[in-house]
Design goal:
Length: 284
């Protein structure tokens, strides 16, 4: 789930935080007994930021939001809502303590990344290009790390013992060998690609050789936006032949992707970069 950046006051008051789009005003979802629909809104839950277990499964559904005093939204608004549980029936309703309009934050982020600073402008362009070229773009979190099935064979140059489990015997290992590793990513939201994807497998090189130094090196708990490319790197040295046991156990239907460019992963706390990546992906 994505990290929230709300003011401490809102964040501390809310147990259920989600991003959604306002579909109707002064209306409620079916199955709720609410006579006075003033200050109610039907909101589609696009992404859960934080939720107690009882509310963790509502992503992708419509819920009713009772707005706080002096709080207002318009049909079509996309916002992060800070709420607590209120009514439960065949659908559910929550009480809002406040919200933040996403469009305004994204516009601010885009403006920041399009500044005249040459480095920042270059980073913005790189993110947009990688998102445009990506096969999938998702928000998610790394939940497991494992080694892939080894290639037909590898040996150390000079006859030394292989350095990793992914090395056996046919192609010599050199300083440029990537030493592939697999990250299982739990998907919170698909911004580009196959909707409904729950988990994906990302292959990345653990080597710090100059050829691979800038490629993201994932760890369990890494969270953000992943720009996923086909598992067809031009340099297929030591290319694994199949998913390893960790990936097969946790994401057997996923297939594999790569993140080989430093722009291919934007951590959740880099909010401006995340906003640019999501906007570029959704424009495809």
């Amino acid at each position: 789930m994505a990290k929230t950046s709300a003011s401490p006051a809102l964040d501390q008051q809310a147990r259920f935080v989600f991003r959604g789009k306002v579909k109707k005003l002064n209306a409620a979802t079916p199955g709720l007994s609410i006579s006075d629909k003033k200050n109610l809104a039907v909101v589609h839950v696009a992404e859960i930021v934080r939720a107690p277990e009882v509310l963790s499964g509502v992503a992708g559904t419509d819920i009713t939001v009772r707005l706080a005093d002096k709080e207002s939204v318009k049909k079509g608004d996309e916002a992060t809502f800070y709420t607590n549980g209120w009514l439960f029936g065949s659908s559910m309703a929550v009480q809002s303590v406040g919200h933040e309009i996403i469009a305004a934050k994204a516009a601010t982020a885009a403006a920041a990344l399009s500044s005249t600073d040459a480095v920042t402008a270059h980073q913005s362009q790189a993110i947009q290009e990688r998102a445009a070229d990506a096969k999938m773009v998702v928000s998610g979190r790394v939940v497991a790390i494992g080694t892939p099935a080894p290639p037909a064979a590898l040996t150390m140059t000079g006859g030394a013992t292989p350095a990793t489990p992914a090395a056996t015997r046919a192609h010599p290992i050199s300083e440029h060998t990537p030493f592939w590793t697999e990250a299982v990513v739990e998907v919170d939201q698909v911004h580009k690609g196959k909707k409904g994807t729950d988990r994906i497998v990302v292959r990345f090189p653990t080597s710090t050789d100059v050829r691979w130094r800038k490629a993201p090196k994932f760890q369990v708990g890494d969270q953000g936006v992943f720009m996923l490319h086909g598992d067809t790197a031009k340099d297929a040295q030591a290319r694994p032949i199949g998913m390893g046991p960790t990936a097969l156990a946790m994401a057997p239907e996923s297939g594999t992707f790569t993140c080989l460019n430093e722009a291919d992963f934007q951590p959740a706390h880099h909010e401006e970069a995340v906003a640019i990546a999501k906007a570029a992906a959704s424009s495809e």
